[in-house]
């Protein structure tokens, strides 16, 4: 059973437009959420995170929004660039400092020049 | 700074064979992890270690063994390889936070 779900396997966006990647989770005890980015033949790299006490965290072109009541988070990329084309994984953890992350299945983003 | 290094990058095993996937990190991280990623699935934790001499099972440990004799190394052992172990394996490390650093992965095929 997948506790972290990314229901869109792929997303295509025009360069310069906004990319919105979505993630849903089932375990209300998750209190820390992260997004990882993965290029082919490479390991995932950390992108941005958010604690459950916040509803928004911003880092340059990347913003993560958290809606705890809906158990939903999203990653916004504005403006999208061709170099953003990658697989994006959402991940959630049960407690700060926990040594286990639950990953979603990933969304492949393609930014069209 | 090499980060997390995994070897080999690719391997084909026959059913019943054994092998060790190597993982080394040079960041002095105390936590290390092994994940597998099956097609269309998220990463699932196999084993993890919070320090030298300490290991624990993750979500999918069956068919695998690990050891952590040093801070730097965290090898994953497959005994009696099965087709169900065909996957991409990622090693990762962290220093007691969420700043996981992943290796580039080992693609294993069991035939």
Supply the number of helical segments of chain B: 0
Q: What is the global morphology of chain B? A: globular
What letter string, H or E per element, gives the SSE order of chain B?
EEEEEEEEEEE
Low-confidence stretches of chain A: none
Please describe the biggest sheet of chain B, giving its number of strands, its sense, and whether it closes into a barrel. Answer: 7 strands, mixed
Unreliable segments of 5+ consecutive residues of chain B: none
Mean pLDDT, all residues of chain B: 92
Structural class based on helices, strands and sheet pairing of chain A:
mainly beta
Specify Rg of chain B, calculated over alpha carbons: 13 Å
| Portion in strands of chain B | over 45%
Mind summarizing the main beta sheet of chain A?
A: 6 strands, mixed
Strand tally of chain B: 11
* Elements of chain A, N to C (H/E): EEEEEEEEEEE
Distance between the termini of chain A: 37 Å
Rg of chain A, please? 13 Å
Number of strands of chain A: 11
Mean pLDDT across all amino acids of chain A: 92
What fraction of the residues of chain A are assigned to beta strands by DSSP? over 45%
Q: What's this entry about, in short?
A:
The complex is a heterodimer of chains A (113) and B (111). Chain A is an all-beta fold and 113 residues long.
Write a concise keyword list for the protein shown above.
heterodimer; A: 113 residues; mainly beta; five-stranded antiparallel sheet; 0% helix; 53% strand; globular; B: 111 residues; seven-stranded mixed sheet; four-stranded antiparallel sheet; 11 strands
